Amino acid sequence: MLLSLCNNDLIKKVNLIFKNSLSARWARKEDGIIIFNKPNIYYLVFEVLIKILLAVELESLEVYQQIKEVSLENDSIWKPRDIIKISYYLKLEEIDLWEYLIKWGIENTSSILNNDLTKWTKTYFINLEKTLHSCIPFIRFFQMSPHDYTKVRTHFKDILPDGLDEQVLQYFSNSSSELSFDVLPPRYLIDSKIINSIVAELIASWIDKKQGTPYLFKDLPFKFNLIYRASREGFEIDKFHNICNNKGLTIVVIKVHNSRKIIGGYNP
């Protein structure tokens, strides 16, 4: 069910890209072959979108996963905005997007001659920041888990905008704090650091006992409202019950530490 849902979601978004980005004024037909000349679409992005469509038609999660891995292995020849754009269609975690962006930045900063961060000079970090300067503001640091953000600040605190690190930590301790940085909304339509809109679609379909193809997010019969986030409200069991009891229909989702496994339950 998840595979079918992912495919429907992907094909709609990829088709939208083609509709918006490719028009007749950029196309001509020669010997039965349509030739597009669109200078503002990097060729690798176009190639990946074609591959995604093929994977969708094949209905193969394995093929899709291979496309994801192969495409991002070649990220050194992508433009940084391309990596951010394609993340929407590959449903990357924010920390994964950051790590691919860092990898791209290192590959495209000529003065960096060593991948061993322990041997980096201050100049390496300064030059990496210059390479990624226009893209860092698009990373949703505030939407990362504290665990994932620790990975960012441990090695790359020096390339973050001045004051951002302090405000991210402040937001983690109190999400109602007044901040000078914009807190970008969740990338995948749902306010969660654990699940994205695709998982929400699947959960809603399970709850509603929907047969066949799962709901699309825009058609969900339920509205997901975040009422408790342990990294924000705390991990105390009494506090959990004080906030969550007597709320009607509730879902609990928990991410297993140091893994991508998600467990949870539904209280009707």
Return the structural class.
Answer: mainly alpha
- How many H/I helices? 11
Main beta sheet strand tally, sense and closure: 2 strands, antiparallel
Mean pLDDT: 75
CA gyration radius, whole angstroms: 21 Å
In percent, how much strand structure appears in the residues?
Answer: 5-15%
Describe the structure concisely for a colleague:
InterPro entries: TLDc_dom. The protein is built from 11 helices and 4 strands, in the order H-E-E-H-H-H-H-H-H-H-H-H-H-E-E. The chain has helices spanning 2-21, 43-58, 61-73, 80-90, 94-107, 122-132, 146-156, 164-173, 197-207, 230-233, 237-244, and strands spanning 27-30, 33-36, 250-255, 262-267.
What is this structure's SSE topology?
Elements: H1 2-21, E1 27-30, E2 33-36, H2 43-58, H3 61-73, H4 80-90, H5 94-107, H6 122-132, H7 146-156, H8 164-173, H9 197-207, H10 230-233, H11 237-244, E3 250-255, E4 262-267
Describe the structure in your own words.
This protein is mainly α. It folds into three domains: 1-73, no CATH class; 93-187, no CATH class; 197-267, no CATH class. Helix content is 48%, strand content 7%. The chain contains eleven helices and four strands. It has helices spanning 2-21, 43-58, 61-73, 80-90, 94-107, 122-132, 146-156, 164-173, 197-207, 230-233, 237-244, and strands at 27-30, 33-36, 250-255, 262-267. The strands form two sheets. It has a two-stranded antiparallel ribbon with strand order 1-2. Strands 3-4 form a two-stranded antiparallel ribbon. The chain is flat and about 60 Å long. The chain starts with a helix and ends with a strand.
